């Protein structure tokens, strides 16, 4: 009885100590390799494409954004930026030099792009047939594209020289008076367009040739059985089959004409920046260069750059609409 009373006074016995936890088994040797493999499978694609995006962000996206910021400010070389809002764009809208440069860019683009692509189509059509020495001709038509802009323009500047150029000499042989290829508007633009056409015709011809070789021969055989001549096959089979390629070259050539800079710059010599004595062949790129680095108005130059960007986006939008219309037409 006394023993039971003493046990009750002392309280319940203490709990038993917990059993020691069993040690975790060591990780299998292949577990880390499996984990590294999963990490490699998940993150390696991002590592592979990261250099492109970093380079684009540093040399493409940042200059684009910074140029847009400059276009809203008045910035001079060596000076501080002052906010102007859309005044730079309003000044361009009121500037006769801007509208003349825009018109020059359009006219030079038209008279260089249209003959260029037509001749490229003709050359590609000839090279698509089995000709003797076809490989040599394919390399030959690409040779002008491999020539530098400076070398080609300097040669053509001598050919179109008003005093002793070969072009005026040949015109004199057939009874025409000498043409002032540098000081007159249309002759100077024709001369510059000739340089552009000479350099890019072979390049576009090879693009058309690659598209023509992808056209199924069954279509030509069926057209030949129906009595179609080569010219009719070209119009009814070749042209519809390579229509997307033609649209692509039109857009690329238009973009190149919008950014035309080197040919008029070198052709004009000391007056190349201003596009001649009367701005008769000054393009938007030349005007942007003159505003930024000759007069020092970086804000206006940036505004011109953004106008050119908007024009290129408009060209891309037109291409998209035309492509969708062609796909719907073909689907129908």
What does this structure look like?
The chain is an all-alpha fold and 332 residues long. 72% of the residues lie in helices and 1% in strands. The chain has helices at residues 2-10, 29-70, 87-93, 96-127, 134-146, 149-159, 166-173, 185-213, 217-225, 230-241, 243-258, 262-267, 284-294, 298-331; strands spanning 73-74, 82-83. A two-stranded antiparallel sheet has the order 1-2. A hairpin with a 7-residue loop joins β1 (73-74) and β2. α11 packs antiparallel against α14 (298-331) and α13 (284-294) packs antiparallel against α14 (298-331). The longest helix has 42 residues, at 29-70. The N and C termini lie far apart (108 Å). The model has no long low-confidence stretch (mean pLDDT 86).
Structural class per helix/strand content?
mainly alpha
How many separate helices? 14
The neighbouring-strand order within the major sheet is 1-2
> Roughly what fraction of the amino acids lie in strands?
under 5%
Weakly predicted, low-confidence segments? none
Q: Tell me, rounded to a whole number, the average pLDDT.
A: 86
Overall strand count: 2
Order of helices and strands: HHEEHHHHHHHHHHHH
Separation, N- and C-terminal Cα atoms: 108 Å
**Nearest-angstrom radius of gyration?**
35 Å
Helical coverage, percent range: over 70%
CA-based shape? globular
**Major sheet size, sense and barrel closure:** 2 strands, antiparallel
